[in-house]
Specification:
The protein is of the alpha+beta class. It has 3 domains: about 1-45; about 50-150, 2-Layer Sandwich (Beta-Lactamase); about 240-374, 2-Layer Sandwich (Heat Shock Protein 90), CATH 3.30.565.10. The chain is built from 11 helices and 10 strands. A 5-stranded antiparallel beta sheet has the order 2-1-5-4-3, sandwiched between helices. It has a 5-stranded mixed beta sheet with strand order 6-7-8-10-9, with helices on one face. α9 (about 275-295) links the parallel β6 and β7. The longest helix has about 55 residues, at about 150-200. The protein is elongated and about 145 Å long.
Amino acid sequence: MKKSRHNSRSEQNRRSIRAKKKAGGRVRRAQKALHESEERYRELFENSRDAIYVHDLTGRYVSVNRAAETLSGFTRDEILGTHYSNFIAPKHLKNARESFCIKLDAPIETTYEAEIICKNGARKAVEVSSRMIYKDGVAVGVQGTARDITERKRAKEALQTYSRRLLEAQEAERQNIARELHDEIGQILTAVSLNLHSVQKTCQTDACLPNIEESLQVVEDALSRVRELSLELRPSLLDDLGLAAALRWYVGRYTTRSGIVTEIIGDAELGRISHDIEIACFRIIQEALTNTARHSRATRASVIIERTNGHLHLTVTDNGIGFESDKLLFGMASALALGLRGMQERALAVKGQVQITSRPGHGTQVTLNVPVTR
């Protein structure tokens, strides 16, 4: 009996030892896996091409990688314990603070562009993406990346310069053609008209008079068309009186020619602004209204003009059939899409933005926003 109890206890002890060994093995494997995971994270952290940082809720850095040192020129020891405001250009601090407050309110990742101040005083454009770090459901800090976008900015500026020069060349060619039409072709047609009037006065027979009168009418029509083309290519009002006057003139003619009742709403006097901006705005509104006449089947349209806080806002709205703007803009296959792309390129050349909104059966709205200076 005693021997049986002794054997039972021994079996229980062996089972307990085996269970402890298994538990110990699981712990060791978990620790090893955790260690390997930490090593992989550390390797990714240190070898990332983007600057990676962690700062606490007071805004002081507690961890940065080697890329952060390379990007800023500061050593890790110089960065750690320092507030992020010491590295961000003052004009971008508002964006940084707003991003931080947004993450406090909602567990989302925020992204914004800024400039960092390097150790040598130079500034670099970066794109900052960050998210809140939580421990036991409580926010303890912020982890983020800063990507150097200096080359991207340069490429964008180069594209803007190229677009601006291309549009300037186009406008110069338009002006030259308009001048040639008005001065050369117009003068020739005027001379022909004068000669026909002279022949009409000296003609002795009634047989030739109908032909002369018909020829005079043809010349007058041609002169009228030359004037129209000359004005379309380069309205003199745009050069002489500015954007507001040119738009009022154009909208008046547009209503007569298209049959679409169009009105201008808003600032009657904008004052003179940069000539490049005036030309770009006029061409964008011209293209928007031309698209309305060609494609929308609209009966009414409006052009809203506003100038506030250093920005010029122009909005063209119609009550036409509309279209799927997102689909068309991404497809960019039709003539209408090419016109819309042209508007976007003109806006880009003057650092503006064009937004095109439309739905089938709900008309179309083209909104232009451009920073302006006198």
